[in-house]
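User: For my dataset I need records formatted as: sequence, then structure tokens, nothing else. Please produce one.
Assistant:
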Amino acid sequence: MSFNFIKDKDKKVHFIGIGGISMSGLAAVLLNAGYKVSGSDAKGSHITENLKALGAEIYIGHNASNIEDVDLVVYTAAISQDNPELCYAINNNITHMDRAEFLGHIMQGHKYNVAVAGTHGKTTCTSMISHVALEADLDPTILVGGELDAIKGNFRVGDSEYFITEACEYKASFLKFFPYIGIILNIDADHLDYYRDIDHITETFKEFADLIPEDGYLIGCAEDDRVSDILSKAKCNVISYGINKGELTASNITYDEKGSPTFDVCRGGDKLFSLKLSVPGRHNILNALCASAVALIFNTSYEAVIHGLKSFKGAHKRFEFKGVKDGVTVIDDYAHHPTEIKTTFSTAKSYPHNKIYCVFQPHTYTRTKSLFKEFTECFEGADELILMDIYAAREKDTGEITSDMLGDAIRAKGIHCVNVHSHEEALSHVEKKLSKGDLLLTVGAGDVVKVGEMYLNK
């Protein structure tokens, strides 16, 4: 079956891994459009409960019997080829496709697709663009890789030609998309379990740019040399941005007591409007410039940009304020790549604090191994680093790399670092050190957030 988002509403679609942040959004889009939806996951969560409330059939655990009456199976890149449901679909000629291909089919039902790509910052930038689009009453459909208060979750189903989504480069999945506006925030070495090297990654981003039609737009950060090179070779309209470099720039930058910036947005050196952000950090100036570029393409009013971006308080897990206890502020951040961690610490330094205690949980063995040196150099600014075991995610432990090895290398750099092997041990260690005015950061893409939550709730 070739899938048509508009015409195939009598079909039943099953999602393997339905509890994932991106898969759940796709499932919800279909449920809101009137489809019959089922899905399975290894464990239940508030996400699977929400989908069940919307009408989805939810199975905990993967079993071939879960898909005996379905017409289409959608699976995530993290699903192994020996998954019993995927095997059943293959052996019984049930149409199946990965998440990216399926998302591409849904995008074909919209004209103005905005696809936000880049190694870092996709969720925050997608969220900013979404805030502006909502403020401008564009009624967009939105899929974001985190939970956003403005849409009460990770998706929104609109009734217009506007579609806003993240475009993940893992396994080159974004090459199955149909962008009218393609965005490249940055290009860095990551996912080296799939890519050969940085040149392979850069070439794949160029292929993504080539998907944009001639009358479409490529938006990219002029501060990133690899992105700039792709912008120079684009076959469509181009808008570049950067603090001091690009078509859109920022001037007269000031920061408030929590590091949130105010600045003028300029085009070709001429001031367009001023922005006051409610989120901290230099990197969010870049995100706001990118969102402004999208708004200019859609002829959105300056007022919608100004109010939309001021109302953005951040996506969950992106330098997210979790609470205060005994004068200690707890912040959680999704950063799991050395470049992202450096940005997190740059932001933390401008946040009011005495000492910074960071609990970090490395994410995947391949990333820890391939970027080992970089991980030893990205925690400058931490008064103490509490290093948890590696979060395996989709991988198996081969014994080649451990968090203890990383800890030894970080200590050799002169950074005060201790290894712990459970959330409880991390909490026990850090709560003895914390005092009024300190900042507790929980950093990583796994479940390290529990440490901060345990501290606040104890």
